[in-house]
């Protein structure tokens, strides 16, 4: 066998033996465990082997192993002078020849990824599944955009939100960053970009301006307004900064030590850190030393220059700095903006490079409110510096990556880069769409990434301005510790990281990953249902295109009021008529379609009704497959299935509204009664789907959600707007019944133990023999049932009812006499239709008694107890 030209042997795995069953087999690992990437990969392999009943032991280099042992070598530093063996940085190959497995990395990160690949293969298929493979990164940089709320005095763009306020303290917890970085590494991300208006006071002490440095971590206790300025100003208002609490007592030296530790940990997982700013913001400075936010102030220029330099001097593992010009530079022309940017960030990084020769640094300049060629001209000294890499950044899909696989905003920018030669960009991929539900459509992502202009691309970062991907605060807890958000959305983030590294990774791998995680279901069915439901987002937003985050948020069907052209911000049927499609699709807007219909011409492109049919079809295929999947297994699986269901119902809501908008637009031209009736019928359907969507979503997640870009997103309040679409057209609300979720143990209301209540049967659509009318005045004691619980665990309890009055009324659930949960029963719309709402409770095995207390008036049909264990 020809020997491979490796520079150095990093570590070796020794396996016994590589055939037959592996239960009881021991794996011996010989490795330089002092290398943190090796140690991390080794731990991942150990976990994968342990899950298959294979023991694991580390041996010293040169230690003898039993005769016949199968060797698995993991090596780093392939000699790239031999093109037969060369790989890009971070590349690896796995070769298996009889009983020998080689894992060969082009460098240590490649070795890390090779080890993670081996661990994953073992996890999903066992040692027998190890086959030859060679992988290297398609996109060199694969990162996250993280709006980081450091302090009330060092806010991000997103601080005026629930996500911002819930995560200020989290940003100073090492356990969060450890989990976050580990999760990124597993998914092949290699950097984090931390975005903040003015981070320097919370991160460094600048020798020339020492009093600017901030001790402690402050969070404002102000009664926040719903809306703040869209360009980030106003977060230093006196009412915000004069009402604060200290949530961490830290000196600036302790803060520096903390972030050094975080960045070093990132480096140990091949995850670099960048800090990116908007400009000019001076939050936290309080006018010290005469610093202002004026681009004409020479003190401000020097302060920023010294701060940029000090960031690199303070943090040896900081990879780069990024900047944006324009958000808060009123009165400045283009030349003045770029003169300021070079005098501050450009000169600052050049100063740092002069002080630390040989250290490689990166400067990122967003092409935003500016022009690429002129930026390059002004920053030529930075571009020419041998130790500084200059990168552009461009907002590739505006605020909605889930809109179209074809984007149209970059051609002129790409032409400028190609004309300049070797300059490259990283693309901002904004997910201001999927915060609640676990989106996952690999086919969409694979095509999207392939369509990004490759020759000028250094990579991408994925993230949001309307949300902060910190620690999960949205989920209703089920007893487990709160997850970090990217682990709650692990499949979503895994898809983007893995396909950015290798877009040739096939769906069979994702199916295998799902099968390993959810062994009780058919993973191919789950994969398909998940992908079909996720297409709600691009299919809807590709037709109903609000380009910026404050112009459209699909999970709320919502935006700022001026963008929605409604008082509430809800995108009503009229806005679905007037808002045009995404220019990267061939979708036809409703006014154009109606004009073509009336002119009896065939429009070119996808008609609105075809878009609606496509959305319905995706949703129906998802829901059909859910019927074939087990609901048991784990609360995590139940949440996934519910998310799929919610995305499908959200899709059917929007598809029905598109159909209604077409009918209404036709009616306004023709005055045909059939078009009017069709519009009302479609809006009734849309309302029914929204009630289904909101009921399941509310059982799993906290709502309302205050977002910094669109404001308060309240699914129950939005339902009122959904109904108003019908009423405004003179229609009578007549929604379909919500049918009981199959598979549960139904406790009929009439079978409960109660006094003073009457069993009725005059309302149609009930289950069992009737229903019970409840009124808080005739509830001297709870209504209760006694039933058998087959196994201990969490259960979903679904209450089916009709409510005679609007508003929300609390229903208290009692288990064995103790309060277990509260379920808000809310509007069913109008008329006589049965709806249900849910909660999660823990039930111990054996005979249990469940009771309810209620204030309000309802007709209770039944309680449906669904096992999610």
Structure description:
The protein is of the alpha/beta class and 869 residues long. Helices cover 36% and strands 22% of the residues. It contains 25 helices and 29 strands. An eight-stranded parallel β-barrel has the order 8-9-12-13-14-15-16-17, surrounded by four helices. Strands 3-2-1-4-6-5-7 form a seven-stranded mixed sheet, with helices on one face. Helix 22 (608-627) packs antiparallel against helix 23 (635-670). The relative contact order is 0.07. Residues 1-12 and 15-24 have low confidence and may be disordered.
Keywords:
7-stranded mixed beta sheet, alpha/beta, 22% strand, disordered N terminus, 869 residues, 8-stranded parallel barrel
Task: Give the radius of gyration.
Answer: 29 Å
Helix fraction bin = 25-40%
Count every beta strand, where a strand is a DSSP E run of 2 or more residues: 29
Strand content: 15-25%
Largest sheet: 8 strands, parallel, barrel
Q: Write down the overall mean pLDDT.
A: 92
How far apart lie the N and C ends?
52 Å
* Contiguous uncertain segments of 5+ residues: 1-12, 15-24
The geometry reads as globular
Q: Strand order within the widest sheet?
A: 8-9-12-13-14-15-16-17
Helix-strand layout with pairing:
Elements: E1 6-15, E2 26-30, H1 36-51, E3 55-59, E4 70-78, E5 92-97, E6 100-105, H2 108-125, E7 133-135, E8 141-147, H3 162-167, H4 174-186, E9 191-196, H5 200-203, E10 217-220, H6 238-241, E11 244-248, H7 252-267, E12 272-277, H8 298-314, E13 318-323, H9 334-355, E14 361-366, H10 372-378, H11 380-384, E15 388-399, H12 411-420, E16 424-430, H13 442-451, E17 457-463, H14 485-488, H15 490-501, H16 507-517, H17 523-534, H18 536-543, H19 561-564, H20 573-578, H21 590-599, H22 608-627, H23 635-670, H24 673-700, E18 705-707, E19 711-713, H25 715-728, E20 745-748, E21 759-760, E22 771-775, E23 783-789, E24 793-803, E25 809-815, E26 818-825, E27 835-843, E28 846-854, E29 857-867
Parallel strand pairs: 2-3, 4-6, 8-9, 8-17, 9-12, 12-13, 13-14, 14-15, 15-16, 16-17
Antiparallel strand pairs: 1-2, 1-4, 5-6, 5-7, 10-11, 18-19, 20-29, 21-22, 22-29, 23-28, 24-27, 24-29, 25-26, 25-28
Helix pairs in contact: 1-2, 2-16, 4-7, 8-9, 13-15, 16-17, 17-22, 17-23, 18-22, 21-23, 22-23, 23-24, 24-25
């Amino acid at each position: 066998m020809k020997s491979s030209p490796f520079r150095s042997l990093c570590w070796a795995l020794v396996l016994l033996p590589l055939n037959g069953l592996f239960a009881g087999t021991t794996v011996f690992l010989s490795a330089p465990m002092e290398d943190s990437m090796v140690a991390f990969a080794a731990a991942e392999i150990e976990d994968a082997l342990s899950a298959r009943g294979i023991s694991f032991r580390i041996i010293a280099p040169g230690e003898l192993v039993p005769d016949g042992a199968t060797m698995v070598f993991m090596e780093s530093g392939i000699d790239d002078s031999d093109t037969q063996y060369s790989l890009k940085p971070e590349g690896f190959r796995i070769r298996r020849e009889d009983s020998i497995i080689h894992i060969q990395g082009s460098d240590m990160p490649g070795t890390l990824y090779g080890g993670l690949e081996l661990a994953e293969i073992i996890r999903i298929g066992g040692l027998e599944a190890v086959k030859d493979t060679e992988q290297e990164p398609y996109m060199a940089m694969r990162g996250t955009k993280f709006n980081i709320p450091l302090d009330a005095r060092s806010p991000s763009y997103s601080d005026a939100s629930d996500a911002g306020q819930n995560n200020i303290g989290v940003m100073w917890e090492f356990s969060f960053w450890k989990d976050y970085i580990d999760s990124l590494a597993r998914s092949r991300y290699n950097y984090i970009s931390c975005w903040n208006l003015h981070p320097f006071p919370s991160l460094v002490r600048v020798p020339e301006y020492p009093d600017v440095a901030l001790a402690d971590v402050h969070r404002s206790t102000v009664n926040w307004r719903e809306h703040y300025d869209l360009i980030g100003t106003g977060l230093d208002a006196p009412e915000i900064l004069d009402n604060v609490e200290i949530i961490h007592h830290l000196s600036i030296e302790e803060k520096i030590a903390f972030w050094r530790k975080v960045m070093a940990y990132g480096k140990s997982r091949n995850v670099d850190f960048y800090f990116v700013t908007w400009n000019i913001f001076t939050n936290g400075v309080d006018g010290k030393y005469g610093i202002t936010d004026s681009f004409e102030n020479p003190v401000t220029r020097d302060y920023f220059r010294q701060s940029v330099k000090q960031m690199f001097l303070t943090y040896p593992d900081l990879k780069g700095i990024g900047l944006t010009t324009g958000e808060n530079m009123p009165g400045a022309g283009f030349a003045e903006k770029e003169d300021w940017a070079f005098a501050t960030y450009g000169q600052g990084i050049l100063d740092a490079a002069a002080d630390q020769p040989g250290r490689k640094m990166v400067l990122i300049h967003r092409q935003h409110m500016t022009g690429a060629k002129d930026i390059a001209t002004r920053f030529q000294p930075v571009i020419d510096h041998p130790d500084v890499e200059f990168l552009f950044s461009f907002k590739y899909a505006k605020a909605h990556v889930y809109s179209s696989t074809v984007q149209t905003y970059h051609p002129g920018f790409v032409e400028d880069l190609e004309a300049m030669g070797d300059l490259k960009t990283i693309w901002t991929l904004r997910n201001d769409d999927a915060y609640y539900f676990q989106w996952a459509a690999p086919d969409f992502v694979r095509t999207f990434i392939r369509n990004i202009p490759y020759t000028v691309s250094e990579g991408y970062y994925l993230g949001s301005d309307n949300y902060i991907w910190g620690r999960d605060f949205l989920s209703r807890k089920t007893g487990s510790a709160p997850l970090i958000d990217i682990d709650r959305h692990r499949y979503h983030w895994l898809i983007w990281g893995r396909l950015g590294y290798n877009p040739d990774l096939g769906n069979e791998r994702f199916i295998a990953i799902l099968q390993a995680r959810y062994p009780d279901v058919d993973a191919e069915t789950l994969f398909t249902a998940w992908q079909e439901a996720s297409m709600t987002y691009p299919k809807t937003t590709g037709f109903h295109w609000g380009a910026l985050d404050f112009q459209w948020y699909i999970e709320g069907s919502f935006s700022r009021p001026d963008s929605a052209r409604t008082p509430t911000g809800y995108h009503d049927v009229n806005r679905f008529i007037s808002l045009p499609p995404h220019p990267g699709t061939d979708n036809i807007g409703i006014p154009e379609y109606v004009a073509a219909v009336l002119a009896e011409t065939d429009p070119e492109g996808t008609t609105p009704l075809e878009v609606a049919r496509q959305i319905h079809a995706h949703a129906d295929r998802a829901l059909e497959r859910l019927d074939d999947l087990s609901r048991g297994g784990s609360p995590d699986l139940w949440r996934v299935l519910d998310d799929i269901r919610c995305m499908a119902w959200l899709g059917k809501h929007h598809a029905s509204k598109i159909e209604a908008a077409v009918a209404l637009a036709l009616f306004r031209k023709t005055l045909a009664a059939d078009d009017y009736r069709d519009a009302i019928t479609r809006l009734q359907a849309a309302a029914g789907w929204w009630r289904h969507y909101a009921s399941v979503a509310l059982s799993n997640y906290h709502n309302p959600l205050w977002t910094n870009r669109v404001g308060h997103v309240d699914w129950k309040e939005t339902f009122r707007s959904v109904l108003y679409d019908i009423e405004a057209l003179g229609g009578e609300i007549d929604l379909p019944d919500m049918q009981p979720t199959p598979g549960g143990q139904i406790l009929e209301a009439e079978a409960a133990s109660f006094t003073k209540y009457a069993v009725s049967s005059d309302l149609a659509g009930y289950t069992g023999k009737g229903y019970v009318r409840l009124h808080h005045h005739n509830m001297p004691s709870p209504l209760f049932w006694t039933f058998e619980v087959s196994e201990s665990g969490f259960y979903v309890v679904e209450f089916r009812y009709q409510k005679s009055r609007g508003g929300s009324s609390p229903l208290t659930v009692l288990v064995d006499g103790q309060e277990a949960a509260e379920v808000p029963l809310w509007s069913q719309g109008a008329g006589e239709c049965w709806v249900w709402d849910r909660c999660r409770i823990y039930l111990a095995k054996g005979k249990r008694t469940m009771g309810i207390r209620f204030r309000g008036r309802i007709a209770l049909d039944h309680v449906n107890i669904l096992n999610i264990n």
